[in-house]
What does this fold into?
Amino acid sequence: MVRKILGHGATAGLIAGGAVSLTALGVGDHSIGGLGMALGYLIMLVALSTIFVAIKRQRDVVGGGVIRFWPAFGLGAAISVVASLIYALCWDAALAIGHIRFGHSYAASAIAQAKARGMAPDAFAKLTAEMTSFAEQYDGSILYRLPMSMMEILPVGLLVSLISALLLWKGLFRPVRASGAAPA
It folds into this structure.
């Protein structure tokens, strides 16, 4: 079971983390906007489809076509945690390799957007202080950055785990029967 969790989690994490890392290395400190975020989450969903595959294989091969909800969800959640860690490590490696100061770029973008909207001076000053603090913490500490990066993909993985567990527990996506077996 641990091998299955590590294998599927590493695959999902490398697909999602590799894609986001290559993108980061390609654009550097420049923002790719909302379309980039949408594409990133689409890639995460595709990568996290390994959760469905793992739960289905567990049900069909190990469970003889049956799996209970909590074991199915637990398998998916464990794969999500491994994928999240690999994703965050890939992102961190890309930041280091590309000498990217993402926290500062993100903070500068948020401050520029607030200024363009004409934010009230006291609220703008507060936002500027918060974003400056965020940039220093994010770019300065892996212990701050790693959990934040994991939280980008972990909720998506848990949602995929929940949906996959529900679909496979309820008997949807029937197990493949050996040829010659009577249909159910």
Notes: The two ends are 28 Å apart (CA to CA). The mean pLDDT is 89. DSSP finds seven helices and no strands in the chain. Residues 2-99+148-169 form one domain.
